[in-house]
Amino acid sequence: MRLPIVHHPDYDAKTVADDHRFPMRKYALVAGLLREAGHDFILPGYASADELQLAHDEAYVTAILTQTLDAKAARKIGFEITPAIARRSSASVAGTILAARHALEQGAAVNLAGGSHHAGPEGGAGFCVFNDVGVAGKLLLDERSVQRVAVIDCDVHQGDGTALIFRYDPRVFTASLHCEQNWPRDKPPSDLDIGLPKEAGDAAYLSALEDLVDAALGTSPDIVFYNAGVDPHEEDRLGLLSLSDDGLKARDTYVARACRSAGVPVCGVLGGGYARDALAVARRHTFLVEAFGTPD
After folding, report:
1. Histone deacetylase domain: from which residue to which, for each copy (predicted)?
2. Could you tell me the pLDDT band of residue 293, with boundaries at 50, 70 and 90?
3. pTM above the 0.90 mark?
4. Where are the chain's structural domains?
5. CA 213/CA 252 separation, integer angstroms
């Protein structure tokens, strides 16, 4: 059975310039690479305001959807809030919701966007507008499609927004493996945080990953949301860790096999990646699809 892969052309917001610190073109590039490899995509719609408000303040959601967010809040996010950014952010959330539903049916699925883990209940930050995993997790729980959720966040930055969204929800276990000296400065606690020192490489990272995944799967979740950010890579401008391509591949393969072995459906999302070469970032994001689409 083919791996369900969700993609929307609006994931690449054209109002963000090629030389922006956030490599927006990576979304079109990763889709192009996978299309060339023979993959097909499932098209999501756009998340509704009611869905977005499951994880975010109503006034904030309205300000994004109507492009009326104040300049200070927009600077905290890092994007001018244009119609293209509003569409991109809403489609990304819808994509994670759709991928999660396919994961529950087929065991695994990937959204070729998402992982916007710095967006919290009161607003966005760090290039994250809406927290797609936060919304999707809340929605599945509220409609009783699942009873327990685990978040395995391997983006190089701690998942502060996700931690805040699920802070008081005993149905959700949040786990973050990140660089401790990296942004954000204030790190509201996840249920499990493993912060690695700068320049940690493949061996230390993969050892810590085993502990993180074991803890998350030990909570007997009905679904795992896996943030497969490629910013721990040694060439990443914002990462501060030193993983190789092989290290990233081993990470994604370990998570895929562990979830498959435990019989837990997993929804993969892309997360961050900030190397200067957007095509190189896109190629690293394909490792997630390779790992989830390859049987043991």
Report:
1. 30-285
2. confident
3. yes
4. 5-293
5. 11
